[in-house]
Write a structure and sequence with these properties.
This protein is mainly alpha-helical. The chain has one domain. Helix 2 runs parallel beside helix 6, helix 3 runs antiparallel to helix 4 and helix 4 packs parallel to helix 6. The longest helix is centred in the last third of the chain and has 30 residues. The protein is elongated.
Length: 166
């Protein structure tokens, strides 16, 4: 169902990505002082990842994984959706922990494990693809970069509460 919506409205992934890039650092900065809230929101952002990648479908697939390496583009709905899917969770969890690189690595590993499960459990009806892992990892990298920006702004604000004005 979500794929159908995205195919009918391919601009949604681009708008979502732009909104995350613009609003992500602002939200991250606001949540730096509230790591517990950021952590809970980050865990909540994992739920759509689990549902969209591991919920069974009615399709029947053979065991295996498509080995392909395509970078997502604004017109590639499925690949862009895979990018967008990981940005919020990584952004929020990286702000909560203060460790964007560690959260990025964990997210990339988690994406790889999802693809492995999809490859080894054909009853899920999910397609394993290296493109999905790559797109998820790129989304995680963007989330980590946005969190790094939010954390840097928060550190700078803490050092200079007047914003350089005296």
């Amino acid at each position: 169902m979500s794929t159908t919506i995205l195919v009918e409205h391919p601009w949604l992934t681009t708008v979502a990505l732009a909104a995350l890039v613009v609003l992500g650092p602002v939200v991250g900065h606001l949540l730096v002082a509230r790591p517990r809230l950021s952590g809970w929101l980050g865990v909540a952002a994992l739920l759509p990842i689990a549902v969209l990648t591991l919920a069974p479908t009615s399709r029947s697939l053979a065991v295996g994984c498509a080995i392909e390496w395509s970078l997502p583009t604004l017109g590639a709905v499925e690949l862009m959706a895979n990018v967008v899917l990981f940005v919020p969770a990584v952004l929020l969890l990286a702000v909560a922990t203060g460790r964007p690189v560690l959260v990025l690595l964990a997210a990339s590993l988690a994406s790889g494990l999802v693809e492995l499960v999809q490859a080894l459990v054909p009853a899920l009806g999910r397609s394993c693809s290296t493109n999905d892992w790559l797109s998820n990892t790129l989304g995680a990298a963007l989330g980590a970069a946005l969190a790094t920006l939010a954390l840097a702004v928060a550190r700078r604000s803490a050092r200079d509460p007047l914003g350089g004005r005296r």
